[in-house]
Structure formats: C-alpha cells, structure tokens
Design goal:
The chain is built from 5 helices and 8 strands, in the order αβββααβββββαα. It has one domain. The chain has a 6-stranded mixed sheet with strand order 1-2-3-4-5-6, with helices on both faces. Strands 7-8 form a two-stranded antiparallel ribbon. A hairpin with an 8-residue loop joins strand 5 (about 170-175) and strand 6 (about 185). By secondary structure, the protein is of the alpha+beta class. The longest helix has 20 residues, at about 10-30. Helix 1 (about 10-30) crosses helix 4 (about 210-220).
C-alpha cells in the first residue's frame, strides 16, 4: 500500500475511484448470476461550529437562472427589519460525509449476498465511527457476508474479538454462514496486499479478489504521481524503521533525491 494515498486531501477522490474500480473488476466475473451495485451512505454531524468559520459544503440542489448560469446568493442592500425581541443565533454546522460501498446482489431473488466496505477516516473516529459500527452490525446480523477493507494507518482499527498481531492495514471477511467467526488479514506497509476470497451464495464457490490492480489503476487515473510530494514523509508519521525503508525505496525508484 502506498502510504501517501492516505492524505486527507486525496482520500475522498481515491475512495470513490477505488469503489468504481472494484466494481469494474468484479462485475464481469460475477455476471450473469450476480449484480455489483455502488451504494451511498450519508453521515450527518450537527456539532456546533466553535471556530466561527462555516465549512465549505457542496450543495445537493443548485438554483439556475433563466440564462442557464448558476445563480449566486447576494446580500440585500438594505438592513432587514428585525423584531426587537429576536436575538441573533447561528445554526449548528452540519457536515455531510458521503461513503460509497458495494453490494453483491443475486439476480434470481435480489438477495444482498455481500457488502464490501472501504473504510474512510470518518469511519474510524468520532461520531462517524459509531454510525459506521451500527451499519456494520446490521450487516453482521443479516444473511449477507461482509468484506471490510482498512487501508488507513490513521484511526483505531475496527473492533474484533481475539488476539490480533500488530500491523498497518486490515482486511476482514465475515462469512454469514460462519458468524460470528470471521477471517482477518493483518499486514504491514512492507508486505503485499493479500489476495482473499469473498464468499457468495450458498452452493457457490467464493471469488478471489486482488486489490493491488485496483489501487494501481486508481493511482494512474488520478495522476497522483503529479500531486504527491515524495520529498516529504507521509502522514500519519511512520516508525523509524519504516521511514528508513520507504526512504530507500523512493530513492531507488527515483522519486526522492539521493542524500547529500
């Protein structure tokens, strides 16, 4: 995994492109028995705005004038009339977090066979974590399998029961027929992303999924080589051994200047 892709400014675009790329990878292999659909989940946070600055938000509705140009809100020239009993307040800042995920649907009965999640920073911290865990529990107690992909070093890993070795990344495969038992892959920055098998409907063989080609495609499509400064260390910080390892790797690939 490229740790530079975890940059908060890059990750939203990476997440969307990854989900679409995984759909392109799986759909031809699962047809005609299954459909692979992209779904969207919206998280809402209504915490008060303590900074005094309103965050930038993309509207879901755009007002367009008759000439076809987007209409801009303009301030009224005169002061509005206000009742003397009214006091000035500010609406809480509402942040919308949109996460995309995949559903594998059996064509014959429209049953949701599996759900594939790629975690975002909002899934691993604060209110977003609790909302995600609620959605995770819904899948866990349903008849659908769950594939949970965590390619982020930041944030606390999703909870599991059992002795788990340390590592940077995780892939969880929960087979509904074997619940609550699940398979967990834990791997480090220096290890290849493991190929895993996603279960399908009962009586069908699972499908092997290799995420590395999807990530490589995301990197090329987004031209992230033009946007990443490999002269700087990634965030969150690496351990000293990993920092030395990636420094040498980048120098060998010509992405970082040799030490003077």
């Amino acid at each position: 995994m490229n740790p530079y892709l975890e940059d908060p400014d890059l990750w939203p675009g990476i997440h969307k492109t990854f989900i679409a790329g995984l759909q392109r990878l799986l759909s031809p292999q699962l047809r005609p028995d299954y459909m692979v659909r992209i779904e969207e989940r919206v998280y809402v946070s209504d915490e008060p705005n303590v900074s005094g600055q309103r965050p930038f938000r993309i509207p879901d509705v755009l007002i367009v004038d008759e000439g076809g140009a987007a209409a801009r809100a303009t301030a009224i020239a005169t002061e509005p009339q206000q009742n003397e009993d009214a006091i000035n307040v500010e609406l809480p800042s509402v942040e919308l977090e949109k996460d995309r995920y995949l559903k594998i649907i059996k064509v014959s009965n429209r049953e949701v066979v599996a759900v594939i999640e790629l975690l975002s920073p909002s899934n691993k911290t604060g209110d977003g974590r609790q909302e995600y865990l609620s959605k995770r529990a819904e899948v866990q107690y349903s008849l659908s399998h769950l594939v949970e992909i965590d390619l982020l070093r930041s944030g606390s890993p999703m909870p599991v029961v059992g002795d788990v070795p340390g590592g940077d990344y995780r892939i969880l495969i929960s087979n509904a027929r074997l619940a609550p038992d699940a398979s967990l892959y834990v791997f480090s920055l220096r290890q290849p992303i493991p190929i895993f098998v996603m279960p399908l409907a009962e009586g069908s063989e699972g499908i092997a999924i290799d995420l590395k080609p999807v990530i490589d495609e995301v990197y090329v499509l987004g031209s992230y080589d033009r946007d990443i400064d490999y002269g700087q260390d990634p965030e969150p910080p690496l351990s000293d051994p990993d920092r030395a390892w990636i420094d040498q790797l980048l120098r060998n690939q010509g992405l970082r200047k040799p030490a003077l």
